[in-house]
Design a protein that fits this description.
This protein is mainly α. 78% of the residues lie in helices and 0% in strands. It has helices spanning 12-84, 90-100, 102-123, 128-145, 155-169, 173-182, 195-220, 228-231, 234-271. The longest helix is centred in the N-terminal third of the chain and has 73 residues, at 12-84. The chain is elongated. 12% of the residues are buried.
């Protein structure tokens, strides 16, 4: 019987290395997808939960801190004008404070926006089956298109990768389904099949797995991940609210004292004829 000379004989070592590389590629793809999921899905969700449970209390505290910072700065400006022998015009003072304390207004606005976004995010969760399909599709596309796994992507392949990331971040399941159809599993699967090439690829993938595990450990060691258990603990939430309420009570007292002090200074300046004006 004539042998088929077209068949390529692959050594057991090459087969084992190829299998090992494929397993490592699967692991890298899984870790890349999970790391992205931690940052783009889990982290925002945890922040959203934090905002809905404690955001209103923190916003109240921030409003008080902002008001106190404004009153303190107002006292400083008044004293500076007195030291120069200049007239104190309250409207000019308020205009200057508006400019100088714009950062405080921005912080308050951002906090309000974060609180509103948190409610919207948690009010519109994705169905479990669709969320599972979204993650699975993204993991498959990571394996096919992630630059860490495929450093020699063409321009069109990089564009597909950017579309994949954008679709996943938007939770656009239809877009990911379409991308999975146009990017077949066999694409980008070529690799050097020499023993040396496979060993090099295997070692590089092992390093990548170690780096990704370390990165994920770092991510989850920081807030809000460190607050996961506390956010499920009603007693901890209640204690935090009481703590912030106590801080706010002290801030209320400080604000009232500062307002009284500023009012007395402005009244005294008016009586002393120091040119205090409302215009």
């Amino acid at each position: 019987m004539k042998e088929d000379s077209s068949k390529t004989i692959v050594s057991p070592e090459v087969e084992n290395l190829s299998r090992e590389c494929e397993i490592l590629r699967e692991e890298v793809a899984r870790l890349l997808a999970e790391a992205h999921d931690l940052l783009q899905v889990v982290k925002p969700n945890l922040f959203a939960i934090y905002q809905t449970k404690l955001g209103a209390w923190e916003l109240k505290r921030l409003h008080l801190q902002s008001h106190i910072a404004r009153l303190k700065r107002k006292m400083t400006l008044i004293q500076a004008a007195i030291n120069r022998g200049a007239a104190v015009h309250e409207k000019e003072l308020e205009d200057q404070l508006d400019l100088e304390l714009a950062d405080w207004r921005t912080r308050v606005a951002e906090t309000v926006a974060a609180f509103d976004q948190a409610k919207d995010r948690l009010d519109q969760p994705m169905a479990a089956d669709k969320a599972r399909e979204l993650r699975n599709l993204y993991r498959r596309l990571v394996k096919r298109l992630h630059p860490d796994l495929h450093p020699n992507l063409t321009g069109s392949e990089r564009q597909l990768w950017h579309r994949t990331q954008s679709a996943y971040d938007r939770a656009d399941l239809e877009e990911l389904r379409a991308l999975a159809l146009v990017q077949p599993d066999s694409a980008l699967s070529s690799m050097k099949n020499s023993i040396e090439g496979l060993q090099e690829k295997r070692d590089a993938l092992k390093v990548h797995v170690t780096r990704l595990l370390s990165e994920m450990e770092r991510i989850t060691s920081e807030p809000p991940f460190t607050l996961r258990k506390q956010l499920d603990n009603a007693e901890w939430i209640e204690e935090m609210r009481k703590t912030i309420d106590g801080e706010c009570a002290q801030l209320e007292v400080e604000r009232a004292e500062l307002e009284t002090h500023v009012r007395k200074i402005m009244t005294a300046l008016g009586r002393d004829g120091n040119g205090t004006g409302r215009n």
